[in-house]
Design goal:
With 138 residues, the chain is an alpha+beta fold. It is built from two helices and eight strands, in the order H-E-E-E-E-E-H-E-E-E.
């Protein structure tokens, strides 16, 4: 085999390997982390150790635990799109600051339209909001 044909064969082999690796990475990134606790990438508010947690089952049922409120919801996920419907939430004793943050989070969850995952970080995006969550490691 001539030197130029050998180089071409190596280039094609490397290009093929890169395409396969890219496809596998895209497929791994495209899988929503169902059945996992997703913790909002934020510090707890003063006087609390809690941060919001979102857990979505493969059937779309969602458990939503905010700074004060807790409840159920539903998530519809298709491709890289997501719609979250927040159901009835029950209140727990809360400061006005945390109650306001809960209302803002409920509104933000209701406005998300897209999602992506990179490593253990799940990003939910909407027209006016971006929410970053980290998958719990337990």
């Amino acid at each position: 085999m001539s030197r130029s044909k050998l180089r071409e064969a190596v280039r094609l082999g490397l290009a093929g390997a890169l395409l396969v690796a890219a496809a596998q990475t895209a497929r791994a990134q495209a899988e929503f982390p169902y059945e996992r606790d997703l913790l909002l990438d934020a510090r707890p508010m003063r006087g609390s150790k809690r941060v919001p947690i979102l857990a979505i089952e493969s059937n779309g049922r969602a458990q939503i635990d905010l700074w004060c409120k807790r409840g159920q919801g539903e998530a519809v996920i298709g491709g890289d799109s997501i719609t979250i419907l927040v159901g009835a939430m029950r209140d727990e004793a809360c400061t006005p600051e945390r109650a306001q943050a809960d209302e803002e989070m409920i509104a933000a969850l209701g406005q998300v339209t897209g999602w992506s995952v990179s490593g253990d970080v799940v990003t939910l995006t909407g027209a006016a909001t971006t929410l970053r969550f980290r998958a719990a490691s337990h």
